[in-house]
Amino acid sequence: MNPMLECLTADCKENIAAGLVDIVQKLCSEKDLKSEKPIPAGCVEILRAEAGNLLAQVSSKDDTTIAVRAFVNALPMAEARIRPLLGKMCECIFPLNWGSIKAEDLKLVDLAKGSDEFNKINATVQSTMSGTNIVSIQRIQNVPLWRTYMVEKSNIETKTMGKPNEQQLFYGSGALDPNPISRDGFDMRLRGNAGLEFFLSAKDASAVASSFNGSHQIFYAKVLVGESGPLDSNKKLPAFKDEQKSKDRYDSVYNGSNMYTVYRNSQAYPSHMISY
To answer: Can you give the residue ranges of every domain in the chain?
Structure first.
C-alpha cells in the first residue's frame, strides 16, 4: 500500500475511495449507475490505489487532516487521471443486465417477451412502426467490442468536457448479413460508405433493414455522437470546428432531421438485434 495511505484512518481511506468511485460513476454517464449499478469491488481497489498515488503527489505530510484536504483539492486531477483508467476498468463495469461475465467473449441473449427490457425496446419500435410483429430481440454481450466502445467514450468525454452525447439509435445493414455485426461490430468499409449512418426511428432504419431467415433485422445501438457539425468539403469526414485555431473535427454529422453519421467504428456499440 502507498505509504501515504498508511497514515490515514480506515474511515478516511473509505472516504477517499468513495470519492473516486463517485467520479467514475459520473464519468460513466449512466443516470442510474449510482443507485442501481454500484462499482464492483475490483474497481474500488484500483481506485483506492489511485487515491494513494494522488495523495502522495499533493501532500508530503503525515497529518490526516492535511492529507484529506489535499485529496479534496486534487479531485480535478483525479478526474483527469481516472478517465484513461476507464478502458482498463471496463471489464468490471459491464452493463448490470449482462449478469456475471465468464469466459465468453460473445453471448447472444434472447430477451423474454414481456420482460421490462423487451417491452421498452418494443415500445420504441412501435412508436414509429405501429403494429409491427417483433419476432425476437437479442441482447448482444460482446466483451471486446464493449471495451473498445468504453475507451472511445472516455476519449470523447475528455474532448467534450464530459459530454459524449450518447444516444440509442437504429441501424440497418442493408443487403449484408447482420449476424457478423454481433461478433465484429459495425464496419463502415463493408457498406462502402465514409461513415456509419444511424437513425432516430426504427421506421427510417427499416428502409435499409436486412432480410435473413424469413424476417427483417435492424440494430438498436449505443452511439457516441459527441459534438455534431457539418460535413467537410471532401464529404468524407466531419468538418473542422475551427480550422484557423485547431485541427479538431466534430465527432459526428447530423442531417437536421432523422440521422446521425459517425466516422469511427468504435463510436457505436450494437446493443440489440431486432428481428421482425
So the answer is: 3-93, 97-275
Reduced to 3 states, what is the DSSP secondary structure of residue 252?
A: strand
Cα–Cα distance for residue pair 22/19, rounded to 1 Å: 5
**Using CA atoms, how far apart are residues 199 and 212, in angstroms rounded to an integer?**
21
Beta-carbon-side half-sphere exposure of residue 27 (alpha carbons within 13 Å): 31
Mean per-residue pLDDT, 132-159: 90
C-alpha cell at 83: 478517465
Say if CB 220 and CB 173 are below 8 A apart: no
Bigger pLDDT: 244 or 156? 156
pTM for this prediction: 0.69
**Of the options 1.10.3720.10, 1.20.272.10, 2.60.120.10, 3.90.228.10, the CATH number for the domain spanning 97-275:** 3.90.228.10
pLDDT-derived band at 42 (thresholds 50, 70, 90) equals low
Return the pLDDT at 82. Answer: 58
DSSP letter, residue 231: B
